[in-house]
Amino acid sequence: MERLVHAVKVVWRSERLLLQNEIRLGARRAQLNALAGLVSIIGVVMLSLAAFFALVPPLGQALAALVVGFVDLLVAAVLVWYASSLEPGPELGMIKEMRDLALTDIEEEAALAEAELMAIKKELTTFLRNPFDALLPAAIVPLLTSVVRGLGSKKKSD
Predict the structure, then answer these.
(1) 42 Cβ neighbours under 8 A, 6+ residues apart
(2) 3, 45, 88, 122: which could join 92 in a potential S-S bond, CB 3.0 to 4.6 Å?
């Protein structure tokens, strides 16, 4: 029973750690995607300004705004790519392995408990059908021991 409780605790802790890791990873991805969204908005604004300034005869201001806008969009694209490429750490494999071992232990304990219950059921069925046959094997050794002692004490007294 101790082993079953230990296995359940290990599964519980493993699942909790896996969930915490997923939440942490999701939060980092969301933060980077939000930053990429902000940079994209700035890039779109700059591109709009660049288009506006492109219509103005002196092209110096328009070209500068256009370059800044494209750089902002490039940074946003890199951030989105980085956020999507994040992978869980190497400790996650060990946690999953521990969880799987604990689940295997739980399955083994459940199988043992089931086998014990089936044996008890079989013994109970046998006892209920014919109580004398069920009790006889357990009573033979003490009965024979008593008979042998009784015969031995008769011989000593004769």
Answers:
(1) 72
(2) 88
pLDDT along the chain (158 residues), means of 10: 78 86 90 91 80 65 71 85 84 81 84 88 78 69 78 66
Residue type, 82: Y
Within 8 A by CB and 6+ apart from 3, the residues are 105, 109
Concatenating the DSSP letter of every residue in the chain gives: -HHHHHHHHHHHHHHHHHHHHHHHHHHHHHHHHHHHHHHHHHHHHHHHHHHHHHHSS-HHHHHHHHHHHHHHHHHHHHHHHHHHH----THHHHHHHHHHHHHHHHHHHHHHHHHHHHHHHHHHHHHHH-HHHHHHHHHHHHHHHHHHHHHHHHHHH-
For residue 124, give both structure tokens.
Answer: 């109970």
Asked if residue 53 is part of any domain, the answer here is yes
Radius of gyration of the chain (CA): 39
Contacts of 101 (CB under 8 A, 6+ apart): 10
pTM of the model: 0.44
Q: Count how many domains the chain has.
A: 1
